[in-house]
User: What shape does this take?
Amino acid sequence: MVPVSIQVRQALSKLVLPVLLLMSVGIIIAGQADRPLADRARMRVADVLAPLWSLLSRTQTDSERLVHGLKEARNLAEENHRLSAENANLRRWYEVAVSLARENDTLKTELHWVPEPTPAFVTGRVVADSGGIYARAVLLVAGTTSGVQTGNIALASSGLAGRVTEVGAHAARILLITDIASRLPVELESSHAAAIMAGDNSPLPRLLYYSQDTRPIEGERVVTSDQAGAFPSGIPIGSVHYLHPGQPVVQPFARLDRLTMLRVFDFGQSEIEPPEAPGHVPLTRPHRALTLPFKTLLGPGQEG
Amino acid sequence: MSDPHQPRWEHDAETQLTSRQRLDRTARHLLPSVFTALVIIFFSAPVTIPGAAELLPAIVINTIFFWSVWRPSGMPSLAVFLLGLFMDLVGFTPLGVSAFILLLVHGIGSYARFGLMRMNFLVVWCLFGLVGAAAAALQWALACLFRLHLLDPAPAFFEALLCIGVYPLLSATFSWFLHILDEKDTP
Assistant: This one.
């Protein structure tokens, strides 16, 4: 160290603070002038401190978990008591369910019930659909090679998701029930009244054309109806909810905004042809070509 | 025979003692700065402490003010400058702003220390409250200046209040600590 006199040392020590203040002002100006440099310095410091920080946050999460565990342990006896009571209750219900199923089987046997065919189904992964003519539709990785056909019904884990509208060899487009093009005949479960569920591209499709004496009740389950022959009856769709008085909508059970897997069922509905009723005059013949007001779409003299 | 060895023994023992003393003294001088640095690291970690962003400058300003007044050897200007720079690098304030503010606090503290040391605790607390409020206001003003539009002054108020509120607690802790150090110094 350079030997300096006491006076000089005192003067120097008095100078340190102003010099440092000036330096910090200089750093402020430099940091404003060259922001990338400041950011790089920041990132370097953060890199060095990152292990320390992760240690700190891990300690915190560990201690939180410990506290949470202790709290849980305090409630353990109470929880155990509640669960065993619930378990006893459920066991009783299980016995009831088994006896009811047995009774149901017996009754069906006595009535010579024609069993419904168990539908075949395939499961596919949903990939997002950006194109297509529908606003609410998804692509499923399962096509004609897996037995998917147009008109099949797609179910999510908890309820109806939509219908197959187009099929390729390895992919199928499924029109969701929320799309504006989707109109399904439905049944209100408690009143067995028919209605039409119409999508409007919002997450909650509307209920239309229900009869005025059996209005949908808030919270009532909505299931499919077999009126048009497109769906088997009784597939759960959702529950009724009133957004405004007189405007019932359906809250779908299926989480249509985050579909990952869909099961496509072939209920074979199209094969059921009603037998001809003698004396019954159909209003429109089933397999007649539509008569157009003009002869053909082509101009006159061009018919081939 | 033993006579020539005697002085060397004593000499060895003496140097050992002085080196230990020197180490002890260095540790004592560094302790406030190391404490502040650890506080900065702790509060900038992603731990969920309510009001951590306002509490950190409050604690740092408190610590620097206290040591500048009561034991300036433990908080030299260079350490204050480096701590402020470190705080800027770790936090999101413009580079150098914290260093500037902390140096001002340190300067006020060390300039007024002989007056402050003779005063009542409550008076010192009031004066420190003024310093802390001024520091928070200055920080807010500088932030406004660099963003070029008026920011919400509520966090600055909160910071000033925290700064004033934390002072008795930290001051008591540091005084107790100083007391222990002095007791060790005079066995």
